Amino acid sequence: MTGLSAALEMRGKLMDKTYYVYLLTNWNNQVMYVGVTNDLERRIYEHKNKLVDGFTKKYNVEKLVYFETTSDVLVAIEREKQIKKWRREKKNQLVIEMNPEWKDLSLEWE
Predict the structure, then answer these.
(1) What is the pLDDT of residue 52?
(2) CB 31 within 8 A of CB 59
(3) How many domains is the chain built from?
(4) Which of 8, 56, 66, 81 could form a disulfide linkage to 23, CB 3.0–4.6 angstroms apart?
């Protein structure tokens, strides 16, 4: 198997999954975090239970206000990078289009 065919096979396996780009905020919607994962429920559980060291733990960012899906991990990573570069107003607009009341979307899973 050539390097190219191995890479294409690996990408095919990675594309069999669903990937999520998501936005979290704190309870007064002052701080925003953008992330990517292949298991949104697990990842949100980790954020809510402070199992993830770093920004979200430090600033109590655990309210899921937006997410989108793709089957391509590279698309998900690029989308995360794109959104991270946006000004706060543009991120807010993205949330408002899907979730105008800024509800915690993960509460529906419980």
Answers:
(1) 85
(2) yes
(3) 1
(4) 66
